[in-house]
């Protein structure tokens, strides 16, 4: 491969990498804006799944979006997030049964990957009902909550800005000069040569 061909290939790779990074940044920014608007307008609650009890429908590390739903609107088959009755934390499982309770309803929940329902029942007046799943996006959300993750994200943003600001690799001088010569030759007007016009004999003295 000649020097000029290598330079052209490097320039093409640079342009592709820059385009991919800019598109990735644009998509990420759009997702953040959409998530923010959904949280404000519709009351959507984002949560990160940290276990595999709902696999394969909800893989570990997924970001789930839920809306607060009254107990009267919950149905068997809904995936809900509720507080654990006997331990701190939340659980996201599918409703296997609903029974009336003194206050609201009593839910029997079961993870899709579990063979049996949860031992305890969950008495609720409302619950966060799943409306959307974004696989593995929760990894990014969790990273933002740690110092290392924030440093990595800032470094990524700086790298994107640097790639955008850097000029593309320049072609070798010989190729640029040849290109300019070809361009000049293509647009330069042709020079007209004034050739003498023959005059018939005796015509010069006629009036």
From TrEMBL:
GO terms for molecular function: serine-type endopeptidase activity; signal peptidase activity. Its EC number is 3.4.21.89. InterPro entries: Peptidase_S26, Peptidase_S26B. It comes from Xylanimonas allomyrinae. GO terms for cellular component: membrane. Keywords: Hydrolase, Membrane, Transmembrane, Transmembrane helix. CDD domains: S26_SPase_I. It comes from the Bacteria. The chain crosses the membrane at residues 20-44, 150-167. The keyword Transmembrane applies. Coiled coil: none annotated. This is Signal peptidase I. One of its GO terms (biological process) is signal peptide processing.
């Amino acid at each position: 491969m000649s020097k000029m061909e290598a330079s052209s290939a490097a320039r093409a790779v640079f342009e592709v990498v820059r385009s991919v990074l800019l598109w990735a940044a644009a998509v990420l920014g759009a997702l953040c804006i959409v998530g923010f608007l959904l949280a404000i307008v519709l009351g959507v609650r984002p949560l990160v799944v940290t276990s595999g009890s709902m696999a394969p429908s909800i893989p570990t590390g997924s970001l789930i979006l839920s809306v607060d739903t009254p107990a009267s609107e919950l149905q068997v088959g809904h995936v809900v997030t509720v507080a654990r009755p006997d331990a701190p934390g939340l659980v996201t499982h599918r409703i296997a049964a609903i029974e009336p309770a003194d206050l609201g309803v009593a839910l029997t929940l079961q993870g899709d990957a579990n063979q049996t329902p949860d031992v305890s029942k969950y008495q609720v007046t409302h619950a966060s009902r799943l409306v959307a799943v974004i696989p593995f996006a929760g990894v990014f959300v969790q990273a933002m909550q740690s110092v290392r993750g924030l440093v990595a994200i800032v470094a990524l943003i700086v790298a994107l800005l640097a790639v955008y600001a850097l000029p593309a690799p320049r072609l070798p001088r010989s190729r640029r000069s040849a290109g300019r010569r070809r361009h000049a030759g293509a647009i330069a007007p042709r020079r007209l040569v004034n050739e003498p016009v023959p005059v018939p004999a005796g015509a010069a003295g006629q009036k």
